[in-house]
Design a protein that fits this description.
- The chain has a single domain (17-135), classed as 2-Layer Sandwich (Alpha-Beta Plaits), CATH 3.30.70.
- Helices cover 36% and strands 21% of the residues.
- It contains four helices and six strands.
- Strand 1 and strand 2 (16-17) form a beta hairpin.
């Protein structure tokens, strides 16, 4: 479920936090493969993983050749661990369910990603930017 509580604090066993990240990652060679049902299945995987890892999914957009996420992640857990799990699980599932992905690219995701903490711009500006990706 996408959260509407943009400025709330969360707490864990030994931490109170509000760590929001704008994350962007791409398929290998920036191929336009997140189409024809792959995007919908990636959305399901993303939402399930966020529930399991207690990551707040604030906003997201899946474009044919990249993914934007706005998430709130417990700093004890870390953004790198979240991205690694998301890429690993989604690659395994998507490549097994959509065989054309195996022939299009050697592996689904690049090993890199873009990540910035949200603070310079307001959350609403970033949220609107992500929501409007398909209109650009």
């Amino acid at each position: 479920m996408i959260s509407k509580h943009l400025n709330s604090y969360k707490s864990g066993r030994n931490v109170v936090y509000s760590c929001k990240y704008h994350i962007v990652f791409t398929p290998k060679l920036r191929r336009k493969v997140l189409i024809n049902g792959v995007d919908a299945r990636l959305e399901e995987i993303l939402k399930q993983l966020c529930l399991e890892m207690e990551v707040e999914l604030i906003e997201f957009e899946i474009m044919p050749e990249h993914v934007h996420l706005l998430v709130d992640i417990n700093p004890s857990f870390g953004v790198n661990q979240f991205i690694s799990k998301l890429k690993g699980r989604s690659a395994r599932i998507l490549r097994s369910e959509f065989p054309f992905l195996k022939s299009k690219i050697p592996c689904l995701w690049t090993s890199s990603y873009f990540c910035t903490t949200v603070g310079g711009a307001t959350l609403e500006v970033i949220k609107q930017y992500i929501e409007n990706q398909k209109n650009v």
